[in-house]
Amino acid sequence: MTETTARPALDLSPAPAAAPMARMVAAQAGMELRIMLRNGEQLLLTMVIPVLLLAGFSTVDVVELGDGPRVDFLTPGILALAVLSTAFTGQAIGTGFERRYGVLKRLGATPLSRFGLLAAKTLAVLAVEAIQIAVLSAVAFALGWNPHGGPVAFAYAVLLVLLGTAAFSSLALLMAGTLRAEATLAAANLVYVVMLGLGGVIFATDRFPGAVRTAVEALPITALAGGLRSVLADGAAPSLLPVLVLAVWAAVGAALAARFFRWE
């Protein structure tokens, strides 16, 4: 006779637990990205307007842009504008209305932590920016863009974009977490228009009077556009000044957002 060995009983009792943080963040980032890409107004702000500005001012001699191909001067500034539109304007408006309608409050009751929610929003913003940069670069190359610099310039440009994203995102969360949604909508669009006109996106900042130019050069959009233009259009060596300006804005914005942001 063969002797049978008793097997332990299989435990089928439920064991509920939250998914790993990385999986929750990835899922939330995917949802944030889909929402951003499905929003017609957001698409107009982040994709259509920058492309129209790049194509229009590159082909039509409306303003004086100095020597050299117009597209070489414009492309770095339009790339900076694209970062501003996604990381600041779009995120401020979207987060403001999420806060008003109680979306943030409900998400706060889920296993996804507040840090995880902010990480997911940041990943979604970076994904949209990658799409923007790819589209704008393709349009610029079609218009004859000839960027200068090699791997060092490329690495410097990536660093500036990441710092610009951090600075604009922190300012967007500060605005969205302290103002009413309607006020955020108006203020974010106003800042977008002002930055477009004064931030060195299309017009060179050296045309402004001395005091105005000093104030304008301290803006994050000016640091981002100027830093990108110095290496991509002028072929200059990377400078620490734009990096420092963006880093200071990011640090101050993050500290203020952490202090004053209201989730309800």
TrEMBL record:
This is Transport permease protein. The keyword Glycoprotein does not apply. Keywords: Antibiotic resistance, Cell membrane, Membrane, Transmembrane, Transmembrane helix, Transport. It comes from the Bacteria. The keyword DNA-binding does not apply. The chain crosses the membrane at residues 43-63, 75-97, 118-141, 153-176, 183-204, 240-261. It comes from Nocardiopsis endophytica. It is found in: Cell membrane; Membrane. It is a multi-pass membrane protein. Belongs to the ABC-2 integral membrane protein family. PANTHER family: NODULATION PROTEIN J. Residues 41-264 form the ABC transmembrane type-2 domain. Its main location: membrane. PROSITE patterns: ABC_TM2.
